[in-house]
Amino acid sequence: xxxxxxxxxxxxxxxxxxxxxxxxxxxxxxxxxxxxxxxxxxxxxxxxxxxxxxxxxxxxxxxxxxxxxxxxxxxxxxxxxxxxxxxxxxxxxxxxxxxxxxxxxxxxxxxxxxxxxxxxxxxxxxxxxxxxxxxxxxxxxxxxxxxxxxxxxxxxxxxxxxxxxxxxxxxxxxxxxxxxxxxxxxxxxxxxxxxxxxxxxxxxxxxxxxxxxxxxxxxxxxxxxxxxxxxxxxxxxxxxxxxxxxxxxxxxxxxxxxxxxxxxxxxxxxxxxxxxxxxxxxxxxxxxxxxxxxxxxxxxxxxxxxxxxxxxxxxxxxxxxxxxxxxxxxxxxxxxxxxxxxxxxxxxxxxxxxxxxxxxxxxxxxxxxxxxxxxxxxxxxxxxxxxxxxxxxxxxxxxxxxxxxxxxxxxxxxxxxxxxxxxxxxxxxxxxxxxxxxxxxxxxxxxxxxxxxxxxxx
Length: 458
Fold this sequence. Notes:
CATH topology of the largest domain: Heat Shock Protein 90
Largest sheet: 5 strands, antiparallel
Radius of gyration: 51 Å
CATH architecture of the largest domain: 2-Layer Sandwich
Order of helices and strands: HEEHEEEHHHEHEEHEEHHEEE
C-alpha cells in the first residue's frame, strides 16, 4: 500500500505540474500574440499606462529585441536596456518559437518562464520575449506536495487498519479450524473442523480437510480392526499349540497319543507360519513395498503348475481338479505371486466348496482372465460383496478354519499387478472367482499362440 500510495502521489504531482506548465505556457503564447499585435502599431511603448493587461508589475513582463543585433527596441519597466536573450538564444528565436526558464529579472532567486518568438513588424525582423514569474506555480506545487506528504501516511494508516480488519475477519475461520485441529487426537478422530456457510476458498479448504480426516479415521479404524483380528487369529493357534504341548507333557501317554499331539502342534505351527506370511504380504502391500519379480509367464503353463502342485491333496479328498482349454497367452507378471494367488483360490475351493475344481483361462488384446470354479453351494449372497475384506469368512462358527486372509491376499497380489479380482456364483451352482490381469504388465501387448487343450483331470 505504501508503494501504491507513493506511485499515485508521484503521478498526481507530475500530472499537476504538467497541467500547470501547460496553462502557464498557454498564457505566455496568448500574451506573445497580444504583444505582437501591439508592436504593429505606431505606439509601441509597452510600459505605457493602460498596458497592464499585457504587463503586470512583478508578475509578467515583455521585451522586443531587434533580430539583427539583439538590441532592445521596447520593453516593460526595467527591461528597456538589458536584453533577456543571449546571443545563442537570440539566434534560435529568429528561427522558431520556444519556451525556456531563467531567473526572474524582477525578483532575485525566483525562477521565471519565458517565451521567445520571431515577428516582422513595419519592415523590421524583431523578436518578442514575454515571461512571467513562476512563484505562483511553485507555491501551488509546494502546497500539493505538503498535502500528499500529510495525506499519504494518513491514508496508509487507514488502509492498513482496514486491511488488517478485513484479513483478520477473513482468517478467523482458519484460526477456528487451527484450534479445533489442535484438539483432535487419535482418541477422538471422529471430530471435524468447523466450516463456515460461505462458499469461498476457506470453506472449501475446511471441507477438503474434513474429507481427509474422514479417510484417516477410516484408515485408523481399519488398522485397529486389522490388529485386533490378527491378534485374535494368532491367539487361537497359539492356545491350541500350548494345550497340545501341555497334554503331551502331562503323565504317561502312549506313543500314538504323542504322535497325534505332535501332528496337531505341527498343523498349528504351519497355520501360524501361513498367517505370519499372509500378514507380511498385506503389510508390504499397504506400505507399497510388495516386490514383484516379473517375467514372461504363459497362462496355460501356470495353470498346469497349480494343478500338479495340488494334485495329491485333491485326490486325497476324493475330488478332481480339471484344467480347461486355455490359449497359450504370454503375460508379464510375477509367476510366484500369481501362483500363490491361484493356490489360495484352490485352497478356498478345497475347504469350502465341493465337487470338481475347474481352472481355466481366456484372453483378449489387453487382458488375461484366470478362473477358479467349484461345484459346491457357492458364496452366501451377503458374503460376495465383502469376500475380499481382511479376516472375513463366510462361516464365522469355524474355530480352527482359515484365517480369513486367503481372498484378501489374492486381491492384494492382483492389484499389485494392476489387475482386479471378482467373486460370483455360477447360475448352475458353485463359486467362481475371476482374476483379470493385464497381459503386458504396464500397458504391454499380448503374444498369443493357437490354443492347446488341457483337459486331463488331476
